[in-house]
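debug: dumping io for the single-chain case to check the tokenizer round-trip. Nothing else runs in this session.
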Amino acid sequence: MSEAASAQVTLANSTALLPSLGPLLHEWLPRQRWFAGKGRPITAFSLVSATEILPVDPAGSADTGPGLLHLLVRVHQPTMPAQPPIDCYQLLLGVRPALPPPLAPALIGRVADGPLAGLSVYEGLHDPRLATLLLERLRTPGRLGALRFDRGTASVPEGLAPRVLDTEQSNSSLVYGNAYILKIFRRVFPGTNPDLELPLALSGEGCGRVPAPVAWFEAATPERLTLGVLQPYLRGAQDGWQLALRALATGQDFTAEAHALGRATAEVHTSLAAALPTPALRGSRTDQLASAMVQRLEAAAHAVPELVPYVPGLRAAFDAVAALGRRGRSWATQRVHGDLHLGQTLRGTDGFWSLIDFEGEPARPLPERRSPQPPVRDVAGMLRSFDYAARSHRPWNDEWAARCRDAYCEGYARAAGADPRDEPELLRAHETDKAVYEVLYEARHRPDWLPVPMAAIHRLASVAD
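debug: decoded output
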């Protein structure tokens, strides 16, 4: 066995590795935007896997090149309602004797003891050499330690310069040569991530509305974990949220874009229905759907007192769906985007709209995100997004939102052959559920934005009455 291989095995299997990194992670992790456990103390770490993608030389001199250490780490925290006591996070740690000045902002800390004693550990994605190495691994499928790399039929050129996107919140992304984007899932769950599963299914159906995965990597642990997906980067594309805000600021009409977005959504839904099962929503499943919505409403009202006066009116929307189900009404369900809003859409330089980020709402359990849902769930998310855009503009422009909502539904109906407004009870229930989610999110993270979903709560409670 070579010296490098021997060092790799020793470090990856060292029981002292994680304890030596623990003090640094205690300080660094809560400051990361993608860390979901903010506000709760970290009580312990446990190691799921450790893999040296580029071997670390513990006795390296100042001019020794970097090592790249891939860790899957469980973070133990006190249990709170709707939050798991243990989350698993993916870390890509660069290791050097000393950091060059350009990498100083990426520093996590200097290890005091253990197998990396005296070495500097930093966020490896910010190191161009290590980011390039990660792309090389994706270009050559196979296993490395606990990691398994795979790719589709398309080849990926070498030598593409990497850069980190600074706009991600729940994940991290690297852009290579303005040609590909690699999304790194930070908080990982057992099972295939929908952001890999659904684009692969759509690609198989020939749907061009979603960039097809080119390569991906997973953890080859007892529990399958999707870790990252490489897709074409839509260079020059603009996201729908910024386009909508620009239209509001300049007084421009946005109904043509909303109509086109409706068509794009319907095309994606049609392809997903062709690729994956479409069970019916009826009977007990309808009761379960309505009951889950009621539970989320009650939990949100407990946390946000402003919701309490509206609970009876909002609950009526959920009860109406349950009542229809008990009378024998059924609806088709299928795999959907799960977190559709203007920020999850891109308009290309040719005016073509694409949908991105099929991960679903990160706060929801993965089995729930992977379960078939009524297509109106995505429609409701986009309708709420038009409302958000209109209310972020001063003065609030409710008429703009109403026109966009109608145009979106008309575009959807044109492509799907069915208007989502023809199922008013189901659409209202999903829009109400989304608004309740927004209230809880804004109260926790952006209190100044709370009036935006509360305005929708007032409207939806009145409609339900």
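debug: round-trip ok. The radius of gyration is 24 Å.
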